[in-house]
Amino acid sequence: MTPDDGTPPPFEPYRAKVIERIPNPGPAEREAALVRAHFNLFQLRSDEIRVDLLTDSGTGAMSDRQWAALMVGDESYAGSRNFAHFEAVVKDLTGFPYILPAHQGRAAENLLFSTLCRPGSVIPNNMHFDTTQAHVLHNGGRPVNLAIAEAYDPESDMPFKGNVDVGALETLLNMEGPERVPLVMVTITNNTGGGQPVSLANFREVARIVRAHQIPLYLDMCRWAENAYFVREREPGMRAHSIPEIGRAFFSLADGATMSAKKDGLVNIGGFVATRDPSVAERLNEAQILFEGFTTYGGLARRDLEAMAVGLQEATDLEYLQHRIAQVRYLAELLTKRGVPLFKPIGGHAVYLDVRRFLSHLSLEELPGQALVVEIYREGAIRSVEVGSLMFGNQEGTGRSLELVRLAIPRRVYSAAQLAYVADCVGRVYARRREIQGMQYTHRPERLPHFTARFAPAMAPATAPPVRSS
Ligand SMILES: *Cc1c(COP(=O)(O)O)cnc(C)c1O
User: How far apart are CA 159 and CA 231, in angstroms?
Assistant: First the structure.
């Protein structure tokens, strides 16, 4: 830890019971790993990484209570008591009557969109996550992002930048009508747009408009507890309410939801889709049996359902959430002290670097986000991810795109000292940013390209200095 940082590190409300040794590859190993991975960090091996901030999805640490829950797994094919417990917990948290487990969030999306989305359908969302967008497209639909304008301004400090542009939503629904719009979705928090929350007031407005058009409203509820934490902190009059109460205020306005429990479910695998509509539930169940497995396990071991039931409740614990958000802010503060330009305000699960300002000398064709994730790995064996035009393609029609690099914080995994190491490394990369050169594609797949694309350093101009390795 650097002594000049006055910020007291946030106190971790847990202690280690089992530990895992962290690899520490040297500069030559890192360089070799980059070449082997074709400069795509998804292709790295975990033993080539010191701090892994690729994603907060399924990378959290389970609690002792969750590990204990695994031991009471009832592996009956049908009617497992773990399903009954899981179902009761989700019904209690959300109020939705039909709960269908799935092996992860995109599996829940597959069930929902293969059931409701048709060729020619239009699906509005504040901002589609990459897999959500891919499932809409896969079913012939057109994803439309309707976040407020501030969502695209990295420097706007607005408290609810995840909000939906209700005027644009109303215009779209008037134009397309319920025949073309099978559902409206709202993502809490908005992962693609910097992990920003949606206010309850905004969601009420959305629900009013969507209801008036008699269209079902679904939540992408992956980070609903983090969203509720921000609502409690920032929305007038919400302080007195608990996280589950705020959650229920959202869910009571919706017709259903998809969930990746790898986020605010605190498990390594799991998810579900929920609905109020019995006829939709019946069709979802048919798709579930086809794609995931029987109703009472949905692609998971029954012990996983038990761990998920415990994790979903732990994610609503205020002390846990306080620390989680404080940890993300701590990293952001250390980076800000080093001058690193960040997407503002700081969201719930990650710090997002503002690539346009970080690497202002590179054009978008030089893939600056990818150049930056490569350079951060090169500096300190830290893995981050590009969230921008590479992950999402150029958002046609909207004329707007965010160019971000995400440092996602896994839940209950890294200490303040480890985050201070990250801040030091990224600070050093920032100090030598002018030397950083662009990247180019050597292989560019059509769907979800960021997972499997290959890259190479862009042709260096003769005068450019060589890239240093540490
Ligand atoms: C992670 C995520 C998903 C997909 O969930 P997986 O479990 O990774 O399949 C969907 N929406 C959002 C907002 C997410 O963050």
Answer: 9
